[in-house]
Write a structure and sequence with these properties.
The chain is mainly alpha-helical. The chain has one domain (about 15-465): Hydantoin permease (Orthogonal Bundle). It is about 75% helix and about 0% strand. The protein contains 19 helices and no strands. It has helices spanning about 15-25, 30-40, 45-75, 75-85, 95-125, 135-145, 150-170, 175-200, 205-210, 220-235, 240-245, 255-285, 295-305, 310-345, 345-370, 390-415, 420-425, 430-455, 465. Helix 4 packs antiparallel against helix 5 (about 95-125). The structure holds phenylalanine (PHE). Phenylalanine binds near residues 233 and 327.
């Protein structure tokens, strides 16, 4: 196809802007809040190794596939899939892949916003000096007070959703590009400082050992699925966020180099976060498997005892809010772009409609931490016996919807789309690099995702084979 499509939503100013926006999408609560607590719950080293392998072998190639589909289709993921399926002479059902992505983004944002609300609350707690000199128990009770109060959670969740709607309503270049330019570097500096604190505080090597010494007897088959799901979650893959950002990418930008850069930065943030948190966990005799409250119960201890902790703590949680903000925007953008394209509403209204729906659904998550904390809807299934509604939402989206979406994106880009088209879009020649990508996405990715799925559902048993732990 020689005639190139254009996006009606505008475009990034260039390659750097795209890298920053996509890194802004990728780097978020997933890296700093979620990665440490799921690594802690799943035994550490072996989990981290599986996660890193998934980033390299599955994540980055699928990210390239998503960007290339987006840039070729130049529309919301739903319409991009429709157009590209037509172009390839494939079934119209592919349009539903875009729609499933919109649904996943909606479900994820509904809880993501609640957690981002915790981070906002902590900006103020930190600035007020609440953590200064506090003990681990004191910090834990501050956390419980917050999550135990649905009204407070609702207020923060509401504020965060409003912030998200405002930026999305303003469009692609609006404030987003400028915000990420400052934010991503600042986040790195603060994390490195926290690592310095953890290094000086003792137990640094215990933290490193926990994170980087694989012990496969500590990870279950379900743990492998969680590690893989997290690779999708942390890189924002499998639901169209990166696809829609790709649709605003200027022509002639190297997709491969860009995606490798994003994958590297995202992983670096997660590692820096883990290396800051686990030493603090061990020095203070905390539980690595403490769950979603982990960073909110560990980092304040560090801030409460280090010189200048009030300032650094406030800044840290502020940056976490920003990191969540730039991710939230990308979670809702596919829905907004689609509303603009198909329903003829303005961007502002599209942002408001999608935002309100997401906000309402967020109530389920809020209640999961207090009034409904004993409500375990799927307790009759062994792996879900302790899962609240929030846990189930997170599991369904990150471990099922995203890998499945990613799998289908991979299948589409190399089995359905013409090879010449992906060759043209990736624009790196028909050499070893392209062939490596093609091979990974065509064979390795789908097989890996399927094996992990089949294993968890118990249809195939690899547990004995690799010596993984039993449930
Ligand atoms: N990648 C984001 C994070 O790590 C979350 C996200 C998932 C954003 C899917 C967009 C799409 O926090």
């Amino acid at each position: 196809m020689s005639e190139r499509r254009k996006s009606i939503h505008g475009s990034w100013s260039g390659r750097l802007a795209f890298i920053l926006a996509a890194t802004g999408s990728a780097v978020g609560l997933g890296n700093i809040w979620k990665f440490p607590y799921i690594a802690g719950e799943n035994g550490g080293g072996a989990f981290v190794l599986v996660y890193l392998a998934c980033i390299a072998v599955i994540g980055i190639p699928i990210m390239m596939a998503e960007v290339l589909l987006g840039r070729r289709g130049r529309q919301s993921p739903i319409n991009t899939m429709r157009t590209l399926a037509q172009e390839a002479g494939a079934h119209r059902l592919w349009t539903w892949l875009g729609a499933a992505g919109v649904l996943a983004g909606f479900l994820i944002l509904s809880y993501y916003s609640v957690i981002a609300g915790w981070a906002m609350a902590y900006v103020f707690r930190s600035a007020a000096g609440t953590f200064s000199g506090a003990t681990a128990e004191g910090i834990a009770s501050i956390f419980e007070q917050l999550t135990g109060d649905p009204e407070r959670l609702l207020a923060w969740h509401t504020l965060f959703m409003v912030m998200t709607m405002i930026v999305v309503g303003r469009g692609v270049r609006g404030g987003l590009e400028k915000a990420v330019r400052f934010l991503v570097p600042a986040l790195f500096v603060l994390l490195i400082m926290l690592d310095g604190y953890a290094l000086a505080g003792g137990a640094f090597d215990q933290g490193l050992r926990f994170l980087f010494t694989p012990d496969f007897s500590k990870i279950t088959a379900n743990g492998v699925l969680i590690a893989m799901g997290h690779a999708f979650f942390t890189l924002s893959l499998g639901m169209g966020a990166i696809m829609v950002y790709g649709s605003y990418l200027p022509e002639r930008t190297s997709i491969a180099k860009t995606c490798i850069t994003i994958g590297f930065l995202d992983t670096l943030v997660a590692m820096l976060a883990g290396m800051a948190i686990f030493p603090i966990v061990f020095v203070n005799g905390l539980e690595p498997g403490a769950g979603p409250g982990l960073i909110f119960q560990t980092l304040p201890i560090a801030f409460g005892h280090m010189p200048g902790g009030v300032v650094f703590g406030t800044l840290f949680f502020l940056l976490l809010v920003f990191a969540a903000w730039t991710s939230a925007i990308s979670l809702i953008e596919p829905a907004v772009a689609w509303l603009v394209e198909n329903k003829g509403v303005s961007r502002v209204y599209a942002a408001v409609y999608a935002g309100i729906a997401t906000w309402g659904f967020g109530l389920l998550t809020i209640l999961s931490f207090n009034n409904w904390s004993d409500f375990k809807p799927l307790s009759f299934i062994s792996i879900f016996k302790d899962y609240t509604v929030f846990d189930l939402l997170d599991y369904l989206t990150a471990n099922i919807m995203l890998p499945l979406g990613g799998l289908l994106i991979a299948v589409f880009s190399v089995w359905i789309m013409k090879r010449d088209d992906s060759l043209q879009e990736l624009d790196m020649g028909d050499g070893p690099a392209y062939r490596l990508w093609y091979g990974l996405v065509r064979y390795v990715t789908p097989v890996a995702v399927l094996i992990v799925f089949l294993n968890v559902t118990g249809l195939i048993d690899f547990v004995g084979l690799f010596g993984l732990a039993e449930e």
